[in-house]
Amino acid sequence: MTYQSFDGHGVDVAVKRADDLDRTVLQYIAAYPGCRVLDLGSGAGGQSLRMATAGAHVTAVDQFDFEEQFAQYGQPADNLRFIIGDLQQLPVLLPEQEYDIVLCQRTIHYLSYHAALTLLEELLLIIYDKLYISVTGSGSLVGDTYPGASLPIAERFCELTALGKDMFSITEPVCLYNQVEFMQLLESAGWTVDECWESAFGNIKAVCSK
């Protein structure tokens, strides 16, 4: 299975497969057809398309231009739209918009701790129900090539080693967390952590409520 990388932000896993967190979101959509979903860091839209096909109204956001990929999906075009933009400008990108749930997979670690905290606080204002979120953990193989793991979280925003950049196609700075640190980030932003777990690959995933 060949994965593609875009813009130094690692491989786009969702184009090829849905993981356990993706499937949990699809279960929510099955229970609440017609729900409004915000997909942050959508990549080329693999999971966005699954969610729209399942019956959700999906707004996908990514800083890389995936308009061509989304246009190729055709139907269900009426309930799937793509917006190009920086997640740190969310209030400008989505003025006066509200959603039932938000999915943010393998994305928020590309923000510094303080920027991630701000984004999570902003999401509380526009999300009615659930946050589904994941990060690459500091205990993962990616974390093995991360020189910032011993730094305080507020200072932990740096590039991987040259080996890590080559192995994982991640050339942008990242802030990696362990499971406890990630839960603390979510709770500090005002979210209630319903579930949090670490995958076999060292990725940390969480489902949160307002």
Folded structure, characterized:
The termini are far apart. The longest helix has 14 residues, at 113-126. The protein is α/β, with parallel strands linked by helices and 210 residues long. It is built from seven helices and seven strands. Strands 3-2-1-4-5-7-6 form a seven-stranded mixed β-sheet, sandwiched between helices. The chain has one domain (13-209): Vaccinia Virus protein VP39 (Rossmann fold). The protein has helices at 20-31, 46-53, 67-72, 90-93, 113-126, 162-168, 179-188, and strands spanning 36-40, 57-62, 80-84, 99-104, 127-136, 192-198, 203-209. A hairpin with a 4-residue loop joins strand 6 and strand 7.
Task: Please outline the helices and strands.
Elements: H1 20-31, E1 36-40, H2 46-53, E2 57-62, H3 67-72, E3 80-84, H4 90-93, E4 99-104, H5 113-126, E5 127-136, H6 162-168, H7 179-188, E6 192-198, E7 203-209
Parallel strand pairs: 1-2, 1-4, 2-3, 4-5
Antiparallel strand pairs: 5-7, 6-7
Low-confidence stretches: none
Instruction: Based on Cα principal axes, name the global outline.
Output: globular
Straight-line distance between termini: 37 Å
Total beta strands: 7
CATH architecture: 3-Layer(aba) Sandwich
